[in-house]
Amino acid sequence: MKKILLILLTCILCSSCGKKNLVTCTSSNSDENLKTNIVIEIEYDKDNNVTKTTTKETIESDLKSTLTNFKEDLEELYKDYESLKGYDMTIKINKKKLVRTEVIDYTEIDIDKYKELNPTLENVLRDNKVYLDLLVSSYEASNSTCKK
Q1: Which residues of 105-119 are buried (b: 16+ CB within 10 A; e: fewer)?
Q2: Structure pTM?
Q3: pLDDT tens digit string along 31-53?
Q4: CA–CA separation, 85 and 88 (whole Å)
Q5: Which residues make Cβ contacts (< 8 Å) with residue 86, sequence separation at least 6?
Q6: Domain span holding position 39
């Protein structure tokens, strides 16, 4: 019986090893012509510094031209970010859906260069690192719902 309990305890402890500290923020909006959904996964370390964000933004429309215009606008908006190490973005249109996926690895990105491109980043920094509570608060202020 003790061996079974020991094995069970070991399994439980090992299953929590390697788990990421993660907060997920979501928002959505729709009207008669357009539906948007945004999911942001925020990974953070033991000091509550954000290490990585993965954003998946989905825009749905029956009009292909609307999606094409969105894609062109997004590509133009983010074109200067492409040269940043630790920043990756893809935009794809599939039928009636545009999907933009953005990954920012804050352990690799040059924060000063990123701040030049995105001055509002200053609002979520503490000691030149993106701080979890400040980032979550900024998303919640923009009508996102965030959960650990």
Answers
A1: bbeebeeeebeeeee
A2: 0.85
A3: 988 999 999 999 999 999 999 99
A4: 8
A5: 104, 105, 106, 107, 108, 109, 110
A6: 20-147
> Does a structural domain hold residue 82?
yes
- Positive or negative: CA dihedral 59, 60, 61, 64: positive
Please give the Cα distance from 106 to 113 (Å, whole number).
12
Q: How far apart are CA 131 and CA 36, in angstroms?
A: 27
Q: 122-148, pLDDT tens digit by residue? A: 999 999 999 999 999 999 999 999 999
What is the dihedral angle through the alpha carbons of 144, 105, 54, 126, rounded to the nearest 10 degrees? -10
Domain-located, residue 4: no
Of the two residues 1 and 139, the one the predictor is more confident about is 139
Residue 68 lies in a domain: yes
- Decide: 23 and 146 in contact? Cβ < 8 Å: yes
Please count the structural domains in the chain. 1
